[in-house]
Amino acid sequence: MDEKTTRYTNRVVSHPTDAFMAFIAENGQTFEQAAAARQDASGDHNQRETPLFAQSIARWAEKKQKG
């Protein structure tokens, strides 16, 4: 980390609704299975999208510095 570098932290907390719990039960999944699948999907998404988001932030910062 230095004056030209920053760290981006993304945290998500999810709480299941009764409707969601009913949906996963109706589809033969446990909450633990659904949570693990969601975690995998979120991790995959973040691995692909975070570098693009960082590039977007960098472009904005460079444009702002130039005036």
Task: Give the tags.
2 helices, 67 residues, single chain, elongated, mainly alpha
Concise synopsis of the structure shown:
The protein is mainly alpha-helical and 67 residues long. The chain has 2 helices and no strands.
Describe the protein in words.
By secondary structure, this protein is mostly helical. The chain has a domain at 41-67. The protein contains 2 helices and no strands. The chain has helices spanning 18-26, 31-66. The longest helix is centred in the C-terminal third of the chain and has 36 residues, at 31-66. The two termini are 25 Å apart.
Write the layout of secondary structure elements.
Blueprint: H1 18-26, H2 31-66
**Element string (H = helix, E = strand):** HH
Which class do the helix and strand fractions yield?
mainly alpha
Counted by DSSP, the helix tally is 2
Helicity, in percent? Answer: 55-70%
**Counted beta strands:** 0
Radius of gyration over all CA atoms, rounded: 18 Å
